[in-house]
Fold this sequence. Notes:
- The protein is α/β, with parallel strands linked by helices and 432 residues long.
- The protein is built from 16 helices and 15 strands.
- 34% of the residues lie in helices and 16% in strands.
- The protein has a seven-stranded mixed sheet.
- The model has no long low-confidence stretch (mean pLDDT 93).
Amino acid sequence: MNILLVNPPNCGRSIPEERYGIASIKQIFRGEPLALEELAGNLLAHQVHLLDLKVEPDGLERELRELQPDVVGITGMTCEANTMLQLAATIKDACRAYVVVGGIHASNDPAFFNHPTVDYIVVGIGKKVFAELVRALEEGRDASELPGVLPTRPGKPMERPLLRNSTDDLVMTHPPAYDLVSHYRPHYTLKKMNVSMGFVASAYGCPHRCSFCSVQGQTGGCYLTKSIETVIRDIKLLPDIPMIRLVDANTFGNVTRATALGRALRTAGLDHKQYLADIRSDTVVRHPEMLEEWKTAGLRAVIIGFEEINDASLSAMNKANKASINNEAIAILNAMGITIVGDFIISPEYDEEDFDRLEAYLGTRRIDLPMITVMTPLPGTPLYQQERHRIVNHDLDFYTLTNAVTPTGLDEKRFYERYATLLANSHQNARL
């Protein structure tokens, strides 16, 4: 079959820009569509094309005309969900292909895509079941019983399908089809470092239960890891890429396995590689020896979700961590010379003193690149259930993590002015 896999264009909207002319807050998401590369790697019996509309936003009509696909798969985040439906409508108008949607929003809120322009919704990792779905469509078989597949039924309620939640769904025998984006590769760079960056997945899901996090929907709350051999194989498939972003929600969720992976990287003949990975601050504090191993293997930077600067706020997020642990982790990483990309989440209810406290905190600690987002109740998360009655903006285009979709404590314009100033000040001396 002819299969087209589509990564949506940049499409998130910005309240501060549209209402108040504050353009400095809006974020643009750019990186290779690894989820689609993973799917393509398991479709060896088919002709597969991958279209990245973030790089060539006007390419869809051409691809539909030239490829005449039998199946089109679309992935996307929550802020891209509306655009995914628009793409599905365009595809249905242009050809008779089956339209299949997947990705993190489809996993957390599949009913959103219960729409006439969509034929199937894939929930979860999708690598194995999408190939099974394509095979069923090719053979004219009923695909409704496949685990993780939902045939749409517009106007009727949908039940979330059961997930297999097994490492079998990672299909480790088939690597990502990195070759399908070779012509896009010059666009996949880390601009602040001016280096090419490639994506590799070593784990899926997370063993923790932060209330704001949407990752749980991908694996049903399970934490699944690829074998060490598979991770090294995938890294070696990107020989000319100096920086590898391990895109896992938590690369170090299993410390024993993560330690073994660090040692394997050190001896795998990958001396020219550097790594960027996610880690929790309590893991840094409890296992600094593991990070020493990784530093030797090429770990250059870590992304840490500090989220907040006081224990009460962390507890409200079900973060299961303490501000003192965050501070200790910063000191350890500074001493090791590992760059810190620190994630912080500001509440829409922040007042002037809250902004002042966070700004003072960032000014007195060496966090090389603070990343500051707005607490957003994403559909499918515990936070959404908690806050849904307070949501004043239900347009998913604004769910970019840089807009307040619940009421602000300050005057809205003042909130965004303080947010923009905080970002500017924190990034002024950013270093990577």
